[in-house]
Amino acid sequence: MLLALISSHALGMSVDIEGVDDSRLEDNIETHIGIIGAPVGCEMTANYRQTIQEAVTKAAQAIGYYQLETLKIRLSKDEECSELYLTVNPGSRVKISQRQIKLVGSHTPDPVLQTIIDNAQLKEGSYLEQGQYEGLKSQLLSKAQVRGYFDAKFTVQEIRIDLKSYSASIDLQFSAGQRYAFGELQIPDDDKAKVLIEEVMTFKKGEPYHADKLAEFNQNLKLTGYFQQVVARPLVSQANEANVPIQLIVSAKPRDTFNIGGGISTDTGPSGRFKWQRPWVNSKGHSLSAEAFISDPEQNVSVKYKVPLEDPLNNYLSYQAGLKAENDNDTQSESITLAVQRHWGEADNDWKRIGFLRLEQEKFTQGTDDEQTTTLLIPGVTLSRRRARGGLDISWGDKQQYTLEGATQEVVSDIDLVRIGLQSKWLRSYGKHRVFVRAELGAIATNDFSQVPSSLRYFAGGDQSVRGFALNTLSPVEDDELTGGQYLNVASIEYSYPVVQDWRIAVFTDIGNASDKPFKDLATGVGLGASWSSPVGPIRFYFARGNSVDETTWRFHFSMGPAL
């Protein structure tokens, strides 16, 4: 209906129909006539009248009205002939009296194709609709191709209509033929990544063909990060005994790649990022990268060496080294870190596991305390999952991350330490309504909190924490200086609604703090915001009122990047 009105009004003409009680028929007629528009010079010629009649007949037959009569066609008398008047007699609608839709030519029909037939809307006693009939044919053919029935065809496709009884019989017979299987994977002879390619394969030779498995293989090859361009495609014309060879066309990335980026937020101010990567260090697929980040409160540089194992996408080792300096609020810190991580994952499971061992030494001054240096050897595990839909500005998604780490004086470390962190974010859309909920909990157990490095203590406040407060300005205070907390408790709920294209308005409430006791002295932040879905991703603006036991503040927040 909306399409018809838009089309016809765009051409300066609307449609008024008399004699029709079926809203679907009326909408369909308006849609077909809307495409035609007003005649040149507003003249009701014989050709124009015939064109209108043909459009009405086609629109009616598409949903089962095969005896519709067009009784009158006239144009309004204004200079722009802004309206077309129709009087029609739709007659009776044709129903399906007999239905024979079946798979032929195989003693064991494919269950997926059979399910499509069983669920077809073309039932005996229902009204005949051409769109449903053509849709069923298209669905059978496309699903057959996806499942490797490359010789599939209709042996019978017939609709017989009896206008005396207003009935129709359907005879549709589909021969899928033989299902093809995956054949040899044709890898270029000079390609140095044969082992890695074989490790991310999603099918085996002789396995029944399925296009989804080939698409997943293509995606896996792209995700490895080793290739500039990659295409895996079936060569049906070269099939041998129903085995389809898969041709692989790949081009490796340049020896070195460089990325320079930047951003700005009210938390960190302007920031810059530089990344260098060498995707191929050797024929085993080892890679090397380095990254530097610079902002006013924080600067860091890191180097990473990645070693793929049995599955380079989900199972690999990484060796890392990094330097970090921070001068923010009442924290001054310099640290050096060496780490090894083992990544585990499964292609059919969203959850990822990381086991790590990290050696770090941090020289820091927190608040009014004297400068000190702490060395820790920290083993730990992280369990995480991220799911998202909707491109840059996601409309559905969630993220979970749980980390447990610790250290002991018995092995290298200056103190005993156990640290746990739990983070959860959920974004859901209900029509135009969007809700974003997040929560973060953390706790530290130690025999000497004064020696816990600043980077491991908890602070709250900022764009991604409790809005209404500057970054990391919520924590226990001693002599008017922030000390960092043993516990972190933060939660938030945000509701947003679209107002104009690419813009949403939002209201939110945040609550939380970093404290020396769980859930102590919780601060709140409430406010209004807006987000713009820009070509480079969402950009968010918030105005928040923060309230804590010590102060009431007003703060503007600006940030860009994904919600999760």
Automatic annotation (TrEMBL):
Residues 14-90 form the TamA POTRA domain. Keywords: Cell outer membrane, Membrane, Signal, Transmembrane, Transmembrane beta strand. Pfam families: Omp85, POTRA, POTRA_TamA_1. Residues 259-561 form the Bacterial surface antigen (D15) domain. It is found in: Cell outer membrane. InterPro entries: Bac_surfAg_D15, BamA/TamA_POTRA, D15-like, TamA_POTRA_Dom_1. Residues 99-162 form the POTRA domain. Gene3D superfamilies: membrane protein fhac (3.10.20.310), membrane protein fhac: a member of the omp85/tpsb transporter family (2.40.160.50). Interacts with TamB to form the translocation and assembly module (TAM). Belongs to the TamA family. This is Translocation and assembly module subunit TamA. It comes from Paraglaciecola agarilytica NO2. The gene is ytfM.
